[in-house]
Design a protein that fits this description.
Layout: E1 2-11, H1 16-32, E2 36-52, E3 55-67, H2 69-81, E4 85-93, H3 102-108
Helix pairs in contact: 1-2
Length: 147
């Protein structure tokens, strides 16, 4: 059987229980087709780069799948029919990653400084910029052609 990573985006107005119900529904489709689902990661509610079906945010969910292609196709067909699923993508992989995905590692990383913590840089307002030496100002009156 082939190995897949599957990510789907669900509507922002769904509850976490409804998201879990969607995952269980698609797990049943895969197991009925002779496959199995390994790791399931809920990445939470994230902002979308652009609106998708009038939604500005979506719940992201990752599933590691081991299944025949026919079972994956059936799951994708049902996701396409569902109004709760905005987008989905399935990628065939050589092997599943061990541990957490890169998205969860990024979210839990705490070695980065807080946003706005700029170290020892002085605070300046917008008008305090140093614009450097711009040279002498040019004359704008009409003295080129003579008087």
């Amino acid at each position: 059987m082939a190995l897949y990573e599957h990510v789907f985006l669900a509507r922002q107005d769904l509850s976490p229980q409804q998201i879990d119900a969607l995952v269980e529904q698609y797990k049943e489709v895969l197991t009925a087709g002779g496959g199995s689902v390994g790791r399931v990661e809920n990445w939470g509610l994230k902002s979308l780069t652009y609106r998708v079906k009038k939604n500005r945010k979506a719940y992201y969910t990752l599933m590691d799948i081991t299944a025949p292609a026919a079972a994956v196709k059936e799951m994708e067909r049902q996701m396409g029919l569902s109004e709760d699923v905005l987008r989905f993508m399935t990628i065939k992989v050589e092997q599943h990653e061990e541990g957490q995905s890169a998205m969860l590692q990024k979210r839990e990383r705490d070695d980065r400084p807080e946003r706005g913590d700029r170290g020892d840089r002085p605070q300046r307002s917008f008008g305090d910029r140093d614009r450097g030496d711009r040279g002498a100002p040019r004359r704008r009156d009409n003295q080129e052609g003579g008087e």
